[in-house]
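[Q] Does anyone have a clean structure-token version of this?
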Amino acid sequence: MRAMTLRMLLSGAAVCWAAASSVCGAPPGTLGEIERLDAAFDQLVAPAAKIEVLGQGFTWTEGPVWIRDGGYLLFSDIPRNSVFKWKAGEGVSLFLNPAGYTGNTFYGREPGSNGLLVDSQGRLVLCEHGDRRIAVLTKEGGKQTLVDSYQGKRLNSPNDAVYKSNGDLYFTDPPYGLPKGFDDPRRELDFCGVYRLTPKGEVTLLTSAMSRPNGIAFSPDEKTLYVAQSDPAAAIWNAFPVKDDGTLGKSRILYDATSWVGKRPGLPDGMKVDTDGHLWATGPGGVLVLTSEGKLLGRLNTGQATSNCRFGEDGKTLFITADAYLCRVRTLATGTN
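[A] Here you go.
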């Protein structure tokens, strides 16, 4: 799909702007259903909670991040090469375009930014598919590249990232943003890596053993790194022990959803963690809520291919990007980010 122009993006036919739970075109106020599989889930999501639709009509939403200084959410629409902003009472507006690809030729179906996060200075950090880098939006204007290569070879297309409290940035690098994906002749690395970038700019390959690493998150004590694998043949979430030097030990499979592939839309993707260590992991059909031991407590079934989530507002609101939708669920849990 060719990148759309700003004029097309702002057309009412392209995107429905939402304020609170009302959305243009009279869409449903809620989406899907919440499924309770264990009594412990009631301590995390109230019985009356719903998956509330905040906006729809996007192409493929991803990478939500809550901006505390300003009280708003940013999220990517990868095919539109744009970052959108949602704020209560104002709805959705265009925040940044282009967001992940600054070239002047067609660059596949997913050229834009993917995962978004905020650094210790409050600046927006973007995993950029088309420009094959992780960049920061500087307060003075313009972007600065944080990392775009490993051992002299260009990264595939950084997907998702998470900061450790010491400032190290851990990120995944599958080739989904390349126009021809795994078979793209532009690829310079013949593996999909999980990396660490230090504040000094040092890049370390932590593992190349995952076929399609995607979402990434730390446990609250930062002793475990969770990495989702969006491989239909092995749709899993891995848990890696984090060593004292920041490298990773041998992983264990936290949860395996391979049997759901083809029966529910989507694959393991982005995830976040609450203060009690539960994982809120997007996967087949919606958001899975797992304990740190891998027990499935419940699901937020959007019925859509669901890409990512992020806690925001007072820390008890889970924002969800699900295909063409932006949603939220009020929780009893408090997010770590």
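[Q] Thanks! Anything notable?
[A] DSSP finds one helix and 29 strands in the chain.
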